Amino acid sequence: MYTLSEINIYPIKSLAGISLQSAEVEERGLKYDRRWVLVDETNTFFAQRDFLEMALIKVDIEDDGLRLQHKKKNIEPLKIPFSFEHSKKGEVTIWDDTVIGEFYNNQIDQWFSEIIGIKCHIVKMPESTKRIVDTTYAENKIVSFADAFPFMIIGQASLDDLNSRMEKPLPMNRFRTNLVFTGGKPFEEDNWKKFKVGEVIFEAVKPCARCVITTTDQETAERAEEPLLTLSKYRKVENKVMFGMNLVCESTGKVSVGDKISLLSN
After folding, report:
1. Which of 190, 214, 211 is nearest to 263 (CA)?
2. Domain check: are 103 and 221 in the same one?
3. CA–CA separation, 228 vs 127, rounded Å?
4. Is beta strand 151-155 parallel, antiparallel or unpaired with respect to 179-182?
5. For the segment 199-226, what is each residue's pLDDT rounded down to a tens digit?
6. Cβ atoms of residues 226 and 266 within 8 Å
7. What is the Cα–Cα distance from 60 to 67, expressed in whole angstroms?
């Protein structure tokens, strides 16, 4: 009844995403997903909410690191190695959390600073850093630099329902989700509890409250009112617009496009 139709990762938080045919499920998220973050001079993270240009930085995964390129400007591409001798380890702040990250050298930082327009640093999350998710929703689970939870899932039917209510349809990339599935009715994922994708078990823990990033065209970095304007008319709960479900995993392994999804409890 349900089939995994898309897998997406966002190696550097708030930069362009990558679509995959398969991915490794790790406790803190899909492999490489949001393992890097940009921080300002106070070592506080920032995102597309404030800097639209971030949407235009394309990310590719190569054997030994990430390759970055601006989608529109003729700027020399940047290579960010997976393995490197970090210039320092230090605390970085993401929302209410303060965690240890590994900093790259000034040359790499300068590439980002010139494009985004502020002095900033690129930081990698080491395996030793254990950022704990909100224990109100899940116990003893960790997360990368994602906003709050390791994974997100959205049904294609949910997006189709939204698009049927708008003059101009929008793509799924507005919602920066990891997993997309086909089958079922709109917003069925709202009521899921525990389910299996292939052989990997996930638990749905909290609906995702959407922010202004969803109104940013990921190809042009232009911002408008939709989809929040339409969603606010029928998907608002306690003054927050909900779209998609946040997840944690109960097992690890590999997921692939085409995997069947089976509900274990709802």
Report:
1. 190
2. no
3. 36
4. parallel
5. 999 999 999 999 999 999 999 999 999 9
6. no
7. 5
Q: Give pLDDT tens digits for 172-184.
A: 999 999 999 999 9
Choose among 67, 250, 261: nearest CA to 179.
Answer: 261
Q: In sequence order, what are the residues at sequence separation of 6 or more whose Cβ sits closer than 8 angstroms to the Cβ of residue 51?
A: 14, 116, 117, 118
Strand partners, 78: 68
- The answer to whether residues 103 and 144 belong to one domain is no
Q: SS3 of 95, please?
A: coil
Peptide bond into 227 cis (omega under 30): yes
Query: What span, in angstroms and rounded, lies between the C-alpha atoms of 90 and 98?
Result: 10
CB 29 within 8 A of CB 13: no
- Looking at 112, 130, 148, the residue that finishes a domain is 130
- Predicted confidence at residue 79, as pLDDT, reads 97
* Same domain assignment for residues 222 and 168: yes
When pLDDT is cut at 50, 70 and 90, the band that residue 266 belongs to is low
Q: Among residues of the chain, what percentage have pLDDT more than 70?
A: 100
pLDDT of residue 84: 86
Same domain, 145 and 251: yes
User: Which amino acid is it at 172?
Assistant: M
- Indicate the helix (H) or strand (E) that contains 242: strand 240-249
The model carries a pTM of 0.96
Rounded distance between C-alpha atoms, residue 62 and residue 33, angstroms: 14
Domain count, the chain: 2
Q: What is the mean pLDDT of the chain?
A: 97
